[in-house]
Design a protein that fits this description.
One of its GO terms (biological process) is RNA methylation. This is Small RNA 2'-O-methyltransferase. Belongs to the methyltransferase superfamily. HEN1 family. It is an enzyme of class 2 (transferase). Its EC number is 2.1.1.386. With about 475 residues, this protein is α/β, with parallel strands linked by helices. It has two domains: about 200 residues, Hen1, N-terminal domain (c-terminal autoproteolytic domain of nucleoporin nup98, 2-Layer Sandwich), CATH 3.30.1610.20; about 200 residues, Rossmann fold. Helices cover about 30% and strands about 20% of the residues. The chain contains 16 helices and 14 strands. The strands form two sheets. A seven-stranded antiparallel beta sheet has the order 2-3-4-1-5-7-6. Strands 10-9-8-11-12-14-13 form a seven-stranded mixed beta sheet, sandwiched between helices. α12 links the parallel β8 and β9.
Length: about 475
């Protein structure tokens, strides 16, 4: 099995520092399936290529096998493609050899860890159940340009058709850690046949490798099922933990991992909470008559995508402090292929919501959807001044989790928050107290509402405040 990864970043030999592998010293590492060789076919300032070659030991594979053969027939352990085609075995080797690079650490070049580099990845033979189209489905939403050529069963007899193997070439500008994690998950997903024992530990591996991209991938349900070898219970656990990140009910995230049988097929599935939030925000914007809108803390651009469908909005500005999030948003929105008239309505800006920014002034409305809880409480006054005093739009819409409702999420531990980056989550009374104080200090009136099913005991899962600036009011900022 062979994989090569190249860059034209200058100097290209910085790749060795990021991978923790010296281009001048070939290395060999033993893994459960055989031996991995790491070497550099080329290493210059203009271009650097690292090659990972896995020599599979067929005898070791048979000795280490548990249960029935993944190759589907009695001699599958002895007659198979494992020594030749990239599969989940290569993903295991990749994870071990490039462990530090996957975590995004580099003692020699820490400044490069977060930099997106021009990369090219080649896999001359990849087991891909679903063919070239499946490779496109997995990698294209992650920002890769995908070239996948099916390998014929026999070039002498083209009428036999294509095999399940492809020759794959990926090009794109990515952080190296992201690229390796895409491969770490993608190889077993495309192969759709894990060749080692799948335990609950694989859930943690999937979520760590998928951090920052799996939750927003359009095929996250398929990826989760395939990576976890179609183990329904594991897939449900993984989807529940992804749901915590997105504030979704796990059972509405993916029907494919829900228990089968007994359900009325005519019954409509519940609407995911994130969709309900978008609908509530759009309804408030329509009611306000806004035509120029700020999405503050826009993240991966999910709400921006919804706002673009509103023809009444002539200008939409997404703002986020993370350049990485804005790159993801640009890919999600297909900015490079967006029609010119649509593109003219949209801007994506990098900026902090705790610092005054003249670019944010003069807009009709601003939305902070699931944003405030990501700030440390002592930074909320700065956000308040930036949004309500300096930018001072006519309407401000704020949504945030209702911590009281968390008891209705079985996947959450007692006292747990819905996202690992949340600094706090408010009760209904705490949120109302904050919103009322903000409105009074800056010349707004505020209305508190809920989004999602209103639990009679614990209230709705999401709470929303709609601030409307009083006519002729002057915002006051506490010294």
């Amino acid at each position: 099995m062979l994989l090569t990864l190249s860059t034209t970043h200058r100097p290209a030999t910085d790749l060795g520092f990021l991978l923790h592998k010296n281009p001048d010293r070939p290395q060999a590492v033993d893994v459960s399936s055989g031996r991995v060789h790491v070497f550099y076919p080329e290493a210059s300032d203009e271009r650097c290529t690292v090659a990972l070659l896995l020599e599979v030991d067929p005898i070791a594979l048979v000795r280490g096998a548990r249960g029935t053969s993944a190759d589907g027939f009695s001699l599958g352990q002895h007659v198979n493609d494992r020594p030749y085609a990239a599969s989940s075995l290569l993903a295991v080797a990749l994870g071990k050899v490039f462990a530090s690079a996957r975590r995004g650490t580099s003692k020699e070049r820490p400044d490069l860890v977060g930099v997106a580099l021009p990369l090219e990845i080649r896999l001359p033979a990849l087991s891909c159940r679903g063919g070239a189209g499946m490779a496109e489905r997995f990698f294209a939403p992650l920002g890769w340009t995908v070239e996948a050529r099916p390998v014929p069963l026999d070039e002498t007899f083209p009428e036999w058709g294509d095999s399940r193997y492809i020759e794959l070439r990926l090009t794109g500008t990515q952080r190296l850690a992201d690229a390796i994690n895409h491969l770490y998950v993608g190889l077993p997903v495309l192969d759709d046949a894990k060749h080692y024992w799948v335990s609950s530990d694989e859930i943690d591996k999937l979520l760590r490798a998928g951090e920052g991209w799996l939750g927003t991938h359009p095929d996250r349900d398929m990826i989760t099922r395939r990576y976890l070898a179609h183990r329904v219970s594991f897939a449900r656990q993984a989807m529940a933990r992804l749901a915590e990140v997105d504030d979704l009910d796990p059972d509405t995230l993916d029907d494919a991992v829900a228990p089968t049988g007994g359900a009325d097929e005519r019954e409509q599935p519940p609407v995911p909470l994130v969709v309900q939030r978008h609908g509530a925000v759009v309804a408030e914007l329509r009611a306000s008559g806004a035509t120029r809108v700020l999405d503050l803390g826009c993240g991966n651009g999910a709400l921006v995508q919804t706002l673009l469908e509103e023809s009444a909005l002539i200008e939409i500005v997404g703002v986020d402090v993370s350049a990485r999030a804005l790159e993801v948003a640009a890919r999600r929105l297909h900015l490079d292929r967006m029609p010119e008239r649509q593109r003219a309505r949209l801007s994506l800006l990098q900026g902090s919501l705790t610092c005054a920014d003249g670019r944010l002034r003069g807009y009709d409305a601003a939305v902070l959807m699931e944003v405030v809880e990501h700030l440390d409480p002592d930074r909320l006054p700065a956000l308040e001044r930036t949004v309500f005093a300096d930018a001072a739009p006519g309407t401000v819409i704020v949504t945030t989790p209702n911590v009281e409702h968390n008891v209705r999420y079985p996947a959450l531990l007692p006292g747990g928050l819905r996202h690992r980056d949340h600094r706090f989550e408010w009760t209904r009374s705490e949120f109302a107290q904050w919103a009322t104080g903000v409105a009074g200090r800056h010349g707004y009136v505020v209305r508190i509402d809920g989004i999602g099913t209103d639990d009679p005991e614990f209230g709705p899962p999401t709470q929303m405040a709609v601030f409307t600036r009083r006519v002729g009011s002057v915002s006051e900022v506490a010294a």
